[in-house]
Design brief:
The complex is a heterodimer of chains A (429) and B (522). By secondary structure, chain A is of the alpha+beta class. Helix content of chain A is 18%, strand content 35%. Chain A is built from 6 helices and 23 strands. In chain A, strand 3 and strand 4 form a beta hairpin. In chain B, helix 2 packs parallel to helix 6 and helix 5 packs across helix 17. Classes of the chains: A alpha+beta (429), B mainly alpha (522). Chain B: It comes from Eublepharis macularius. Chain B: Belongs to the major facilitator superfamily.
Chain lengths: 429, 522
């Protein structure tokens, strides 16, 4: 029986071994470039170049206007980004940002973080059920002043932090702006990181995003799985003074999809929450590929945010998304999306907007800790899919296998012992 | 119940002539309710036994029922709040074992029960006073004292049950006791929040004083249970006098090293018990968020489904107790229940099926296991070690619960519910392994654990016949010997007295061999 069991263990281990093997990962060489061709640092434009075997992904992150991430996929290793700064700052920035050679560009998309809503969530946290008078004046991210990226960029860990505060002189915040300007702590930041094969021996710092190995996942919650084809954005609100007792916040994201393409919102409910405890849903905004084209992109996030810098399960803030809006969407006027896609991009390209709200009815989402962090992946190709970890499969196999083995072994033992008894002693009658 | 008790007292009061010392019970006709041999009287005793545990089960879950209130009023975080349960569990790891031991050796069943009930009352009082004085440490101390009494009281309750019902009804009685405990928990869950809001209306404010008063009101159930303990002790003593029956234990000396003599079967039963219960209680403790997050339940729905296991087990326990009594085959029932539990955990972990199915199955399996598993101990342990064995069983169950509750919290925080469910499934698997092993051990050694009730009865009759035959032979021999040997005064007197039909002292009666013990325990 012992022999039998060890055999099964070997079998199981082999099974586990085959399942654990990763497909050969894709390697990209990533470099960061800050304000290419410009010496001043009062504006932020970060160019991330991820070169693969025969293609390049360009990410352009900028806080000129509304914070925007531009993703351009080219089939050439030598494609370059060109920024015409004078044109970019002019009232008609169309074409100020472009990638050359033009014919190598296969796909491009943009994600714009346009607004942050604040509303009274005492009765319901559902953004669409909240009456209009329960909304506080909206924060328009395009009007924020963004700190210089210069010293908040790490070229080895491939992270950058854009930090902005709603200290705009416009006074568009109504009554709230006064308290805000007095406190001076109101900060909003969003960071961008990107992935590549990390050089050996790179330690991961406690920074927002660190250089990941491809096909690995973050160490901190929500522990998103990422590939070499994506970068992560972390939306953090910290120290913002809520304007009411039951304030909830919501983020509006606008996406631009090239020409005939369109975006589609998908919800993936999984039984597997081992990487993001208690969160069973992954939401993703994928582009539906055009005819005979395989190029697509995604924005993927788990339906959770965290209320602490060192996120733990207890800090989970429920995060709710709302149906995708594809009509009557506008891209904030000043954004590098206009510089890349052209002035009248609403009429030529597919625009979609989505709202994501943070916090549920019960429990204060933000007031207590005044910190909120939400992560999403922006990438090219198919969105990564979570799979069971080997540990789960191993425990399962051993746990369910042993009783069966024991049952079989025990039956045999009982059968043999009984047979022996009968063979040695003849029945008396 | 109180009315019934009063009626009971009245009945006893009016008809209280102390029975003659050595009169056999049959000679003194008593009314059905007062005759310890009659069913009616035993039913009264059964009711008392059930309510004996009501208070402690009611108050045990007070913190869970008032979680938000406790955390709000005492300003403690969840970890500190959970400490209230830990403080209950930890002393029991040691005391459960000694509880059984104390009942057997020091206090006796009656005083033991009374003392433990007192501990429960005092513990709840301290717990409530801790809230009144806004001292959380005092509340923890209260839970500690409460814990000292709580589990030992359950041991005493079981021992009482065995002593009064060690016939066919034992499984049924265990089932009834369990459902009473569950009713206690469920009533507490549903009523304490309401009581709190009423007191809040009365005082006009929330706060630690409100909480303290609510907990004091909860403590009334403990006092009620203490009264039950006192009355039960009286009835037991009375029955002892009338029936000349022994107190619910044995006079034989047992040693602390008894544990070493426990059979393999008993150890396997322990393993089944620990591995099974750690997959139930900590899961229920952490279940609410699971149903909210995975199955998108509302908060109330989640509470409802989370308590369904208790709700189901309350009515089903006596039914299953009856079934197990009727059909025997305890091991088969246990296997059945463990497999169902495993299936429902796997269902919860790997599917999005309506969780009501899985939770109802879990409730059914849970009540079935309790009815089939706990009485098995009585089959594999000589009667005089029963208290010790049950105490030991509950003790390691507590140890398992305390450790696994902490582990489960950590697993949940680091790896989520899927892993937690798999962990619980693994525990149930371990339990399944143990029960399968028990089945084979029993089969190979020819034990009677899995016999049908019919076969047990047949065997019992056979054993009785055998005992009678032996007795006859022994008498015959004695007579033959007596004829051969010169008679002493002593033996002459004995023979004379026995011919007359007079009651001989116990030590002159033929001590039945071990078989008798066995037949008594089915």
């Amino acid at each position: 029986m012992l022999v039998e069991r060890s055999c099964v263990f070997l079998l199981l281990l082999w099974l586990v071994g085959t399942l654990a093997r990763d497909p050969v990962g894709y390697r990209r060489k990533v470099s960061l470039e800050y304000n290419p061709g410009l010496n001043i640092s009062s504006v932020n434009l970060l160019h991330i170049r991820a070169v693969g075997n025969n293609d390049t992904i360009h990410y352009v992150w900028s806080t000129i206007g509304a914070p925007t991430a531009l993703l351009v996929y080219t089939r050439s290793q030598n494609s370059t980004l060109h920024v015409n700064w004078t044109k970019l700052f002019s009232p008609a920035p169309s074409g100020a940002v472009h990638v050359e050679p033009t014919d190598s560009v296969l796909y491009s998309t943009a994600v714009i973080f346009s607004k942050v809503f604040e509303y009274n969530g005492a009765n319901t946290s559902d953004l669409f059920k909240v009456p209009a008078d329960q909304f506080y004046p909206t924060y328009n991210l395009a009007n924020f002043t963004w700190e210089s990226l210069g010293d908040k960029m790490n070229k080895t860990t491939l992270t950058a932090t854009f930090r902005g505060a709603a200290s705009g002189p416009e006074g568009t915040f109504g009554n709230g702006s006064i308290s805000f300007q007095n406190s001076g702590e109101k900060l909003m930041q969003y960071g961008a990181g990107t992935s590549e094969k990390a050089p050996c021996g790179k330690d991961s710092s406690q920074n927002m995003v660190t250089a990941y190995e491809e096909n690995s996942r973050d160490a901190r919650l929500p522990r998103l799985l990422h590939t070499a084809n994506c970068s992560k954005v972390n939306f953090v609100m910290s120290g913002v003074a809520p304007r009411g007792n039951h304030s909830r916040f919501a983020l509006e994201i606008v996406t631009v999809e090239e020409r005939e393409g369109r975006k589609q919102l998908e919800s993936i409910r999984s039984i597997d929450d081992e990487y993001t405890p208690t969160i069973f849903e992954m939401a993703q905004l994928v582009s539906v590929p055009r005819n005979h084209s395989t190029t697509s992109s995604f924005l993927q996030w788990k339906t959770t945010a965290y209320s602490s810098q060192h996120a733990e399960r207890a800090d989970t803030i429920h995060c709710q998304y709302y149906p995708l809006q594809t009509t009557n969407c506008t891209v904030p006027r000043s954004s590098i999306a206009h510089a890349y896609f052209g002035e009248d991009l609403e009429s030529h390209h597919a625009i979609a907007a989505i709202n994501i709200s943070f916090g549920s009815e019960d429990g204060e989402a933000y007031e207590e800790k005044r910190y909120l962090s939400w992560s999403a992946l922006i990438g090219f190709g198919e969105p990564p899919k979570d799979t069971f970890s080997t540990l789960v499969i191993a425990i399962l196999a051993v746990g369910l296998g042993t009783p069966v083995v024991l049952l079989v072994g025990g039956s045999i033992a009982a059968f043999v012992s009984r047979k022996k008894r009968y063979s040695e002693y003849e029945p008396i009658n | 119940m109180a009315a019934l008790e009063e009626e009971e007292r009245a009945l006893l009061g009016e008809e209280e002539p102390p029975p003659e010392r050595d009169a056999p019970p049959s000679r003194k006709p008593l009314s059905a309710l007062c005759d310890p041999q009659r069913l009616a009287h035993r039913l009264v005793v059964l009711a008392l036994m059930c309510f004996l545990g009501f208070g402690s089960y009611f108050c045990y879950d007070n913190p869970a029922a008032l979680q938000t209130q406790v955390q709000g009023d005492m300003k403690v975080n969840t970890a500190q709040f959970m400490a209230l349960y830990a403080w209950y569990s930890w002393p029991n790891v040691v005391l459960c074992f000694f509880g059984g031991f104390l009942i057997d050796r020091v206090f006796g069943i009656r005083w033991g029960t009374i003392i433990f009930s007192t501990f429960v009352c005092v513990g709840q009082l301290i717990f409530a006073l801790g809230a009144v004085f806004n001292a959380f440490w005092l509340m923890e101390a209260g839970r500690f004292v409460f814990g000292i009494g709580g589990e030992s009281l359950a041991v005493a309750q079981n021992t009482y049950a065995v002593s009064w019902f060690k016939g066919k009804e034992l499984n049924l009685v265990f089932g009834l006791q369990l459902s009473m405990a569950r009713i206690g928990s469920t009533v507490n869950m549903n009523i304490m929040g309401w009581v709190y809001s009423r007191i809040q209306d009365l005082l006009g404010s929330t706060g630690h004083t409100t909480l303290g008063i609510v907990l004091l009101i909860g403590g009334v159930t403990c006092i009620f249970s203490l009264l039950c303990a006192l009355f039960l002790a009286y009835l037991d003593r009375r029955a002892e006098k009338i029936l000349c029956k022994e107190q619910g234990k044995t006079g034989e000396v047992i040693k602390l090293t008894d544990v070493k003599d426990f059979s393999l079967s008993l150890w396997l039963i322990f393993i089944i018990c620990v591995c099974y219960y750690v997959a139930i209680f900590p899961f229920i403790g952490l279940g609410k968020v699971f149903f909210i997050e995975k199955f998108k339940f509302s908060s109330q729905e989640a509470s409802a489904i989370n308590s369904i296991v208790y709700v189901i087990s309350a009515p089903l326990s006596p039914v299953f107790g009856f079934l197990v009594d009727k059909f025997g085959r305890n091991i088969s029932w246990v296997i059945c229940s463990v497999v169902i539990t495993l299936a429902s955990h796997v269902m919860l972990a790997f599917t999005f099926w309506n969780p009501w199915i899985a939770m109802c199955l879990l409730g059914i399996a849970y009540s079935l296991l309790a009815c089939a598993l706990w009485p098995m101990v009585a089959f594999v342990v000589p009667e005089h070690q029963l208290g010790t064995a049950y105490g030991f069983m509950q003790s390691i169950q507590n140890l398992g619960l305390a450790v696994i509750a902490i582990a489960a919290g950590m697993i949940l925080d680091s790896r989520g519910y899927l892993f937690l469910e798999i962990f619980f499934s693994a525990c149930v698997c371990l339990s399944l392994i143990a029960v399968v092993m028990l089945y084979f051990v029993n089969l190979i050694r020819g034990g009677d654990l899995n016999w049908s009730a019919k076969r047990r009865e047949k065997f019992q009759k056979l054993a009785e016949a055998e005992a009678e035959r032996r007795e006859k032979i022994r008498r015959q021999n004695e007579d033959d010997l007596a004829k051969l040997q010169p008679k002493s005064d002593f033996s002459l007197r004995n023979r004379y007295l026995s011919r007359l039909g007079a009651q001989l002292p116990d030590n002159y009666a033929c001590p039945l061999p071990a078989l008798a013990h066995r037949s008594v325990l089915k």
